[in-house]
Amino acid sequence: MLTLTDNATTIVKSLTAQPGTNGLRISSDGASEGLAVATVDEPRTEDQVVEQDGATVYLDESASQQLTDKVLDAGVDSAGNLQFSLDLQANQ
Predict the structure, then answer these.
(1) Pairing of strands 70-76, 55-59
(2) Is residue 32's pLDDT more than 80?
(3) Distance between the two ends of the chain, CA-based, in angstroms?
């Protein structure tokens, strides 16, 4: 199952603290292997819910399969842009 770094947990909680948002949704963008990220108010029926230290991430079925052995990290670059990255879990 997807796990989050401390940085990702902090950023997800910050993003979802806004009114009308409950979690961060990661979904497959369709034809390519890319992923889309958006704040949402609730998961879709088929979404897998990942909760870690107060941060909630929803994964659509395809994203769930792609990210099962991954760690989500997040940070802010020098220009102030939010960036997410994925890495393999240490025990893989």
Answers:
(1) unpaired
(2) no
(3) 12
What tokens appear for 79 in the block?
């220009």
The HSE-up count of residue 5 (CA atoms within 13 Å, CB side) is 16
- Asked if residue 12 lies in contact with residue 4, where contact means CB atoms within 8 angstroms, the answer is yes
Q: pTM to 2 decimals?
A: 0.90
Contacts of 42 (CB under 8 A, 6+ apart): 22, 23
Please state, in angstroms and rounded to a whole number, the distance separating the CA atoms of residues 90 and 92. 6
- Residues in CB range of 62: below 8 A, 6 or more apart: 27, 28
Distances (CA, A) of 31 to 28, 34, 36, 45: 8, 8, 12, 22
